[in-house]
Design brief:
Length: 261
């Protein structure tokens, strides 16, 4: 994505103010700084606490000193006790209310009915439902980020989690996919059309949940299966319908692949 010309000039902001006027400042490399000053700025940022991780943390893009790759460590042993983890999972499940008769059942969503963050209007002025919130160890987590972090794991820093099912209150881990913000916006515009088969095609490109997570979801009465575009809806909980324990692809597909028809 091109940098706005009004925000950054062609020269390094630091060099422009420190070098003599007769010396031409070097071109900016990133954030309005030349490569030398940009790398000096990065070295001042704190490093992720996870052993062996060299990621430098930006303010507001890390949690308790961990990068996006490693923030799930905060949700599991040994940083949390088994009793605390069990209690959190019970609280998480208690705030999900699947509706077998509603539209969410078409995709098998896990709709969050607990607390939400501040609702902001969309670009067209329409009301938006916001995202679910859950408290874990005196810290607030977005409910869908907790779900993805606990059941799937971390993702690359600088990426965001896209609700492929188009339901911002869904916390089902295999309905979420990490991608850049620009790609997220592209997909959002593409999905404005009410094309349910297109959403199903996208969902089928995401790896299935692991069998242990599927079993947990079934025992808790949550939808865990997958649908076939133009066919039957997702199997719902323990209703007796058969589904496959297919793990799907070994890794998440590239976003360009997700966007292909």
């Amino acid at each position: 994505m091109a940098r706005p010309k009004a925000k950054y000039g062609r020269s390094c902001l630091v060099c422009l103010s420190t070098l003599p006027r007769h010396i031409t400042p070097p071109p900016h490399y990133a954030n309005g700084l030349c490569e030398k000053h940009y790398r000096a700025q990065q070295r001042k940022k704190p490093q992720c606490k996870a052993g062996g991780c060299t990621v430098r943390l930006n303010r507001g893009h890390s949690r308790q000193g961990y990068c996006r790759w490693h923030e799930p460590l905060l949700l599991k042993e040994p940083l949390r006790s088994p009793e605390a983890i069990t209690k959190t999972l019970e609280k998480f499940r208690s705030q999900i209310t699947p509706n077998a008769e509603g539209p969410d059942n078409l995709f098998g969503c896990w709709p969050w009915t607990g607390r939400r963050n501040k609702v902001e209007p969309g670009s067209g002025g329409e009301a938006r439902p916001g995202y679910g919130l859950i408290t874990i160890g005196n810290n607030e987590w977005l409910a869908h980020r907790f779900s993805f972090g606990y059941f799937v794991g971390g993702h690359r820093p600088g990426h965001t989690l896209d609700h492929v099912c188009r339901n911002s209150l869904c916390v089902r881990p295999d309905h979420l996919m990490p991608m850049t913000q620009s790609r997220n916006s592209q997909l959002e515009h593409r999905r404005n059309a009410d094309d349910l088969d297109a959403v199903l095609f996208d969902l089928l490109k995401i790896p299935n949940m692991q069998p242990g997570i599927m079993l947990w979801g079934m025992l808790k009465g949550l939808p865990v299966g997958r649908a076939i575009p133009g066919g039957e809806p997702f199997p719902y909980g323990l209703d007796g319908q058969v589904f496959s324990y297919d793990l799907g692809p070994a890794r998440y597909p590239d976003v360009p692949t997700l966007m292909q028809r």
